[in-house]
Amino acid sequence: MACLARAGAASAAPRWSARTSAPLAGGIGSALARRRGAVAPCPPPNARPGKPFVEWCRENGERGERLLEEFDDDLFSPGELTKARAERIRWTCRECGWTWRTGLAHRTKDKKPTGCPGCAGKVPTWYNNLEVTCKESDGRLEHLIWEWAHPTKRMKDFMPATHEKVPWKCGGCGHEWDATTHDRTRATHSRGCPKCAGRHLHDLEVHCAQSDGQLDHLPREWAHPTKSMKDFAPASEVKVPWKCGGCGHE
To answer: Which part of the chain is the Treble clef zinc finger domain (predicted)?
Structure first.
């Protein structure tokens, strides 16, 4: 009986080994693999989330040296963090000196790790912003500095090609309008003052006065409580209130 027991134990070992050592193709670590009893292999030591950040940097050559050099946080030290921590750490770029915050996981991941947003042109910096671009344009964009009309923000706060609309005031006719910095700075087909360009030659009041009597009734029927006809272009699509000069209908 003892011999049979030993033989049974020996015969069971290969079945256990075969079951646990052969991971499913395409299903490593998946719920299906766990239900079937397959064991997913451990990830390489360098890819484990809990790996100390300093150790990871030492194993990654020049890239790791750069991260240790740019680590500039006042709450954490490199030695107390792991490579995949989600806390937003402060970094200072060794190339341009720009300071920003992002998680360790974003900088240590294998695919598409993040770097300095200033060097990447994603944020305005002291050396790359709308004002600098205008001053270094050989005169092509210098007029934008005088036409800037934002009440609270500076040109330094914007990139040259942002798609956010900001207010401008024409240096020639004084007309005010909104346009993106991209529309105003692009090399081809850049946009200037719409009034000077003929897209807004005069306001509705002037348009009626120059209509040879055809639109003389509109000033009498104007019923906007806060705005005048001077605030609108003749072809504006904004709806405004009117009051009939004949029956008084509004």
So the answer is: 67-122, 144-199, 220-250
C-alpha 217/C-alpha 227 separation (Å) is 18
Nearest 5°: CA angle at 237, between 236 and 243? 90
| Contact partners, residue 7, CB within 8 Å, separation at least 6 | none
Contact, 95 vs 121, CB < 8 A?
Answer: no
Residue type, 157: D
> Are 159 and 123 within 8 A, CB to CB?
yes
Q: Please give the average pLDDT of every successive group of 10 residues along the chain, which has 250 residues.
A: 46 43 44 52 58 93 95 92 89 93 93 92 91 93 94 94 92 89 89 74 77 88 90 80 92
The span from the CA of 133 to the CA of 190, in Å, is 15
Q: How confident is the model at residue 233, as a pLDDT?
A: 76
Which residue in this structure is represented by tokens 């792991």? Answer: 82
Instruction: Report the C-alpha gap between 209 and 62 in whole angstroms.
Output: 73
CA distances for 105 relative to 66, 79, 81, 198, angstroms:
15, 15, 11, 54
Pair 175, 182: CB distance under 8 Å = no
pTM of the model: 0.53
Indicate left, alpha or beta for 3 from its phi (over 0: left) and psi (-120 to 50: alpha). Answer: alpha
Torsion of the alpha carbons at 85, 88, 106 and 100, rounded to the nearest 10: -150
Pairing mode, if any, of strands 176-180 and 165-169? antiparallel
Please name the helix (run of DSSP H) or strand (run of DSSP E) that holds residue 57, with its range, or none.
helix 53-58
Q: Are 83 and 105 in contact (CB under 8 A)?
A: yes
